[in-house]
Amino acid sequence: MIEDVVKELGHLTLGTRLRRTGELLQAQTQAVLESHGFDQPAAHFPLLAALDRLGPLSVGDLSQAVGVSQPVVTRSLKGLEDDGLVQSATGDEDRRVRRVALSRKGKGLVRRARREAWPAIEAAVAQACARARGDLLAQLAALEDALAHQPLLHRIQAP
Length: 159
Hints:
By secondary structure, the chain is mainly alpha-helical. It has nine helices and three strands; from the N terminus they run αααβααββαααα. α2 runs parallel beside α8 (about 135-150) and α4 packs across α5 (about 70-80).
């Protein structure tokens, strides 16, 4: 087996390692969502959850709520609008501000995800993190090893 250089370089490559782990979690979350019959990208669910929790938001506020850039939010919202999950309108006070809200279809999707998929994902990620001990690099290594050994979908399907 080839050496994992990013892992071996420790703090020097922490950003790369966190991005890699995030991408792995995102891909495995996508597999779980698909197994529950959801065909939306996993990356859209934080936006849907924020709108469900906080109500209608401007694009800037939504960007802050999920911690991603406005251009990323704007691109994601295009897909969500195309799927009929959100609706947007310009603000009454300031026509430059676009406010986004869940549509009826979006609210139903969030209710279903909250009931069927999100608890399973939450439990599977918590299980993968449960053995993490020590400093951040040791915890990250434990999470990476756990996800490589048993992906989230297998953790959910296992008795």
